[in-house]
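Side project, low priority. Logging it here so it doesn't get lost.
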Amino acid sequence: MYSTIRKIIIFIVCKILFRVEYQNEENLKQYGKCLICPNHSRIYDPVFIYPKIENIYGMAKSELFKHKLVANFLKYHNIFQVDREKTDTKSLRKALKLLKENENIRFLIFPEGKVLKDKKQRGIVKNGAVYIAAMANVPIIPIYITARPKYFSKVVVKFGKPIFYDKSQLKDKDKIAEASKQLLKEIYTME
């Protein structure tokens, strides 16, 4: 049932409500295991990405899991909850375990941690994506999705060049924070 619902949602969002175009897909295709980190300006953003990415896992805010139907739908699509109000070590360990145990996995993290409703707004970047990528020794593929597109307009999804992080950066919180800011800059440079 959830698989059928997913196909219907993708068709409605990517073909009817918006016309989605993909650019630089080769940057994603060369890595079976990676983090994918897009900007986040609409609740549809994961749907824009799903048609091009197999074996996708990810995190979503814990508030979404309060509704049983939504929670079941997200779990079916390999999404688990994260508490954005604190350092959620349980979710962090789960992400690292998934990346360690699976050879072919793309892990979705929105570095800004929330939907930004103003086109010109930039969120405060979280350090989780850089930390996980360095710990798991996987690249991050930055993705830019057209910000706040209007209905029935074109949406461009651009896959950026992979970014690699070294575990040695994890020893210095300032380096992690700087790398996270640079990741966000890379995403918005594709605008």
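Brief comment: The chain has a mean pLDDT of 91.
Revisit when time allows.
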